[in-house]
Amino acid sequence: MIRKLLRPLALVSVLVVAAGAVAIGMMPRSQQAQRPASRPGGDRPVPVLAAAASVADVPVYLDGVGTTKALNTVTVKPQVDGKLIKVSFKEGQDVPRGYVLAEIDPTTYQAQLDQAVALKAQHQAQLANARMDVERYSQLAKLNAGSQQQADAARAQVAQLEAQIKSDDGAIDNARAILAYTKVVAPIDGRTGIRQVDEGNIVRASDTTGIVVITQIRPISVLFSLPQQVLGQVNKAFGQGALAVEALGVDGRTVIDRGTLQVVDNQVDQTTGTVRLKAEFPNADLQLWPGQFVAVRLLVSTLKQVVVVPTAAVQRGPNGTFVFVIQQDSTIAQRPVGISQQDEARAVVTSGLQPGEQVVTSGFARLAGGARVSISQPADDTTRPSEPRRPGIGRPEGGEGRRRSEGGGGGGKP
Fold first, then answer.
1. Which of 46, 90, 281, 286 has an alpha carbon within 20 to 30 A of 204's alpha carbon?
2. Apex CA 343: angle with CA 411 and CA 327, to 5°?
3. Which of 15-24, 78-87, 109-118 has the lowest mean pLDDT?
C-alpha cells in the first residue's frame, strides 16, 4: 500500500526537476551572465607588499674568494757564525727597516778587522820607504854613481806595494762588513713572528730556520681568481684605469678594506678555467692577515641611470622573467621584463617597466592576471643602493669568482 503511494510522489519530483532544468536552459544568456561565479575569498582584494621602480646608478661587480698574502716575507738568518748575545725585539713587534733585531758576539770579527788594518799600515810604511829608494836610486843613476837597474827595481817595488795596499783596503772592507753582520737588522718594514732561537745559542750562517720571520702586512695583497669568461671584460676595464677592489667580512656584505687591482696573471689555468688576479690593500686597521681566506668583489663598471626594482619582485615562469604590476584601478597585470643583472637586493630592468610603476614584492600566492589587490603598508625605498649579501668566507666556491646571476629570482609561483 505504501509503495503504491510513494511511486506517484517520486514521479512528480522527477518532473519538477526536469521542468526546472528546461526553464534554466531557455533563460536568456544575459540573465545567466548576471549570476556571480563562486570562488574562494569572493571579490575581496588580495593583500600584498609593493615597491616603485626607480632610476639609479648600479655598480657592476665580479665576485670571488681569495687568499691574503703578505706583500713581502723575509726569514731573517745570521750571515756569520757565533754566539747570540742579545735579542732586541719582541714577538709580534712592528719594526722598521734597519732595526737591530739581534747581536752576535763580535770579538773574533773585530780582531780580524784590526789585523787587516795593521797589515795595511805595515805595507804603507814599506811603500814610503820604497818611494824614497826610487828617488835615491834615480839620482845616483843620473850621476852614474848607481845602476839604472837598481832604480827600476825600486820603482817596481813601489808599484807592488801600492797594489798590496789596495788589496789591504779590500780586506779591511770585507772584515768590516763581516763585523757588521754580527748585528742582525730588519731588511724590510714589517711585523716579527715567533722567535726561532733564544739568547745564548750558537747560530750559524747555514741554519735554515733563521732567527725570526718578518712579514710586511701594511700594505697587504690578496690573490683571487675569476672565470676566464670575464677576462675580456676585466682587461678592457683595467686598460682604462685603476679598478677598485673591496674585501668583505665574514657576513659577506660588510666592507673591511678597499684597495686597487695590481695585476692580472699572464695566463689562464687550464685545469680550472680561471685566471688569477692580485689586489693591494692598505690594511690600516689590520683586518686582513696573511693566509686568511676573504671574499672580494671587483668593480668593473657602473650602469648609469637604469631602472631598478627589488629582486623579490622578479618572478620566473615558462616564458622567462616577469613582474606583477599594480595598475591604477588596483588590479594586477603580469608583465614580462628583461633583466640584465641582479643581486639579493635589487635587479636591473632593461625592458618592460617604466620608472614609478608599482610592482608586487610579496604576497604572490593568490595573484593572477586581473586580480584586485590592496597594498598592506606603504612600500619602503628598497631600491636604494645597498650592500648586497656576498658568499660567506666559510663556503668558498673553489676559489673561482662568479658574476652576479643574470635573470630573475624565484619568488612565489605566478
1. 90
2. 50
3. 15-24
Grid cell digits, residue 235: 682587461
pTM over 0.90: no
Angle at which helices 148-180 and 107-142 pack, to 10 degrees?
160
DSSP-derived secondary structure letter, 170? H
* Residues sharing a CB contact under 8 Å with residue 256, sequence separation 6 or more, in sequence order: 247, 248, 249, 285, 287, 288, 294
Burial class (CB in 10 A: 0-12, 13-18, 19+), 407: middle
Please state the φ and ψ torsions of residue 216, each to the nearest 5 degrees: -95, 110
Vertex 193 angle, CA 187 and 194, to 5°: 130
Domains and CATH numbers, the chain: 51-68+217-403 (2.40.30.170), 82-104+182-210 (2.40.50.100), 107-180 (1.10.287)
Q: 31-81: per-residue pLDDT in tens?
A: 444 444 334 445 688 888 999 999 999 999 999 999 999 999 999 999 999
What's at 48, amino acid-wise?
A: V
Strands 315-317 and 320-326: antiparallel
DSSP string, 12-66: HHHHHHHHHHHHHHTS-HHHHHTSPPP-TTTTPPEEEEEEE-EEEEEEEEEEEEE
Q: From CA 59, how far away is CA 386, in angstroms rounded?
A: 11
Query: Which helix (H) or strand (E) covers residue 142, if one does?
Result: helix 107-142
Place of cell 625605498: 381
Under the banding of pLDDT at 50, 70 and 90, the label for residue 355 is: very high
